[in-house]
């Protein structure tokens, strides 16, 4: 059994208390991590504060060189990290390794982008103020609390951690409970890389017991959180005076406006809906189209969905177990509700414990729960509507506003429709997706606040400092 400690001030913490992490594939214990106390967590923030000034005082290139040693250890251990990820979140081994390699690319890109966060200067001449020059630089905010989700426990952790550290902040990192083995494994790499004490602390434990303690700590200058709407809203309450970047849920629609390339549309929709068993905030979670198009699209979707492999992540199956049985029961409840209210199950609707076969549902009405609630699982509802205006209306009535996809060969129609969709990003003739990671990533409404992306994270984790020269 894997057993990993939390990390505070470069010391592994063993307080005798442990949190067991379940393997979703076997439903047995995959390992355990430290279950920290309130005192432990206070110490993590204390050391992060004490080390921050000296860390920020280092030259940018010195900080990058120190962090490069840490990145090199990630490269050396990428197969082990992928193995742990597959064990604790049932992501296919292939996709787990892709996530680690994608993260390494993000880290390298972040190092280069940080060098281009230049100060800017201006005079006061335009306002009639002579003999003044202002120099405005980006400086660290201080102590950053980074909280990652279970579904991308490595990628979405380091998309927060590295921008924070490279700009001179210190970090307290809390991984999701499922994802804690990967998070705590990093502790060993921090020590081996000999990072300066206190700049990167890793705290683990039961979120329901320590979540409020972590997010309400008075030392926090900024919280970067990815996870559920409920927890995001709780953080809003606890961190009312703290800068926030929140990435929450989504109900990302795919609007199919014509039938000119249905094979391609279907490939994108299936990839968008079922990658990592639909456990992605950017997953396509409903298809909106007309009766005429749906009649042609549906058999193509059915054929392709039934070719998806279902089973173990270690066999690199397309569909693997969802994170736990509670989640599986919720997903199946949405399908049951749709069926009971007149929807037609085209394929799927089969399960074994927390393994759910990819399910395609037709004739979903806006009165059904699956039309509005986020399943976070391998379910794709088809909602038949009469016009593009109706599709736009249904899309915009969602409480979420993360992403949307529009499939249409007439670029004018596609762009004009995109301008009316109220989400952070609209993808034309492609699935909804987070990347490329250099792009800004944002949600509106209950999908979050603030902007992520490599450059945007560097900016959000810093503030302006102005120095005005008078001569």
TrEMBL record:
<dbReference type="InterPro" id="IPR016163">
    <property type="entry name" value="Ald_DH_C"/>
</dbReference>
<dbReference type="InterPro" id="IPR016161">
    <property type="entry name" value="Ald_DH/histidinol_DH"/>
</dbReference>
<comment type="similarity">
    <text>Belongs to the aldehyde dehydrogenase family.</text>
</comment>
<dbReference type="InterPro" id="IPR015590">
    <property type="entry name" value="Aldehyde_DH_dom"/>
</dbReference>
<feature type="active site">
    <location>
        <position position="247"/>
    </location>
</feature>
<protein>
    <submittedName>
        <fullName>Glyceraldehyde-3-phosphate dehydrogenase</fullName>
    </submittedName>
</protein>
<dbReference type="InterPro" id="IPR016162">
    <property type="entry name" value="Ald_DH_N"/>
</dbReference>
<feature type="domain" description="Aldehyde dehydrogenase">
    <location>
        <begin position="19"/>
        <end position="465"/>
    </location>
</feature>
<keyword id="KW-0560">Oxidoreductase</keyword>
<keyword id="KW-0521">NADP</keyword>
<dbReference type="InterPro" id="IPR016160">
    <property type="entry name" value="Ald_DH_CS_CYS"/>
</dbReference>
<dbReference type="InterPro" id="IPR051020">
    <property type="entry name" value="ALDH-related_metabolic_enz"/>
</dbReference>
<dbReference type="GO" id="GO:0008911">
    <property type="term" value="F:lactaldehyde dehydrogenase (NAD+) activity"/>
</dbReference>
<dbReference type="InterPro" id="IPR029510">
    <property type="entry name" value="Ald_DH_CS_GLU"/>
</dbReference>
<dbReference type="Pfam" id="PF00171">
    <property type="entry name" value="Aldedh"/>
</dbReference>
